Amino acid sequence: METGVERIYREESGRILATLIRLLGSFDLAEEVMQEAFTTALERWPKQGIPANPRAWMVSTAHHKAIDLLRRRSRFESKREELQQIAELEQQLSGADEIMLRHDAVGALSDDRLRLIFTCCHPALQLEAQVALTLRTLCGLSTEEIARAFLVPLPTMAQRLVRAKHKIRDAQIPYRVPPAQELGARIEAVLLVVYLVFNEGYSASSGDAAIRRELCAEAIRMGRLVCDLLPGQQESRALLALMLLHDSRRATRVDSEGELVLLEDQDRRRWDREEIREGFSVVQSALRAGAAGTYALQAAIAAVHAEADHAQATDWKQIVRLYEALLRIQPSPVVELNHAAAVAMAHGPAEGLRLLDRLEGKADLCEYYLLPAARGDLLRRMQQWSEAALAYRRAVALANNEATRSFLSRRLAEMEQHG
Amino acid sequence: MQYLLLIYGNEEAVGKMSKAEVDGILQEYGEFTKSIAQSGHYRGGNELADTSTATTLKMRDKKRLVTDGPFAETKEQLGGYYLVEAKDLDEAIALAARIPSARWGSIEVRPIVPHDMP
């Protein structure tokens, strides 16, 4: 059974760390003393009971530990700055418990997490480092879990985190919510990190299923947090809706053998109705409020799919229109490919093939399995078996992960049987 | 006539030095700085923090493109510098964004390592 300490850790460690980073001005020190405070809680709480405000207790205990730690260090190194920092921390601490409780009441502690999001997702950090630091500090994942999720050796991931924290310290990346004139661009950066975390969990490329589920859950949680803390940002709400609608299909995307299942073949009765309902209502209100960015359009596409009880009932004409809008604001070969596939469904495979022909030879897609796979699919629908087999053979050769390769190989075998 | 003396070196090699070696170099720098101050040549100088703390900024279509790391383009050359006081990296980036060349070139933002200079 989960102990009180474990529950507090899971639910509150992100907030506690965020507050400690603000109070102590250092990621490393905050992480170190938070761990110590939790260790103390493990010793004391079973005997003395859980304090009335566990989060306030954690923050003030960790705060005391920080002072002790700095004192011990300053004895060895007698650094002027450390002594000054101790004095500041001690002053903060007088009445800190009271401040904590008052902050709780007005919700100012949420601001700490918001500050932390903007620091972790600062564009002066490498994108990979932004993602890792966000998962480490805001979501409380261990370095090892993050390394496993991104298929990176543990020392590489640890180094990436250390380097990011040093840059924050040495270049003085601020710990605050950006001013209004910069907010738009900075929120974009935050949403990109959240979306990357979600996609890493959602894409069926490889890796541990439990961790992938965890990444999706964390991304959705962060998406909610950004929506709650910065209300009125419609693109944030659109991203939340997009993640919910995609996540609703999670259980049906691979079969019991771990093979990919295409959208049209998924068992829609097993889609998560609760996520669909919420995703729907969030995307509708975001669109009504004027959201028209890439997340909003992708969420709208996902909503049209979710609306159809079975694949044949999909409103493909509506999906074509949404892809056209997406192409106008974010033209990319992958969006063109999806557009062509939607056109094929709405107006017949020959129309889709015509669009695919125009994509042939585009540098970005040359080494990518998606184009021959899409071509194979349309030729299959047109019952041109030998040509379809040719396309699938190329797609198999270019496939970049086991699940995809296995799916394409099955299709190839079907074509060869027909031919 | 004034001249800017730019100091290049291998950060990695410096990082591997012992504390005694680094202290020795710092002392040598202190003596050199003092000597050119006494001879009336000194106008200013600073140690830059490692390139791992650097941020590069470009302005394109009125949008800021901020990236981690030092300026790494070989087709563009160092053309000038500003030394500014800013409360944090965001303020420094905001100042850099107003430098005219940011619109066609790049601005590298590097923290200064605090030392007592003459």
Question: Can you characterise this structure?
Answer:
The complex is a heterodimer of chains A (419) and B (118). Chain A is mostly helical. Helix content of chain A is 75%, strand content 0%. Chain A folds into three domains: 4-106; 108-231, no CATH class; 323-419, Serine Threonine Protein Phosphatase 5, Tetratricopeptide repeat (Alpha Horseshoe), CATH 1.25.40. The N and C termini of chain A lie far apart (58 Å). The relative contact order of chain A is 0.05. Residues 101-107 of chain A have low confidence and may be disordered. Helices cover 29% and strands 16% of the residues of chain B. In chain B, the strands form two sheets. A three-stranded antiparallel β-sheet of chain B has the order 3-2-4, covered by helices on one side. A two-stranded antiparallel ribbon of chain B has the order 1-5. At the A-B interface, helix 9 of A face strand 3 and helix 3 of B.
List keywords for this structure.
heterodimer, A: 419 residues, mainly alpha, Serine Threonine Protein Phosphatase 5, Tetratricopeptide repeat, 3 domains, 0% strand, elongated, B: 118 residues, alpha+beta, 3-stranded antiparallel beta sheet, 3 helices, 5 strands
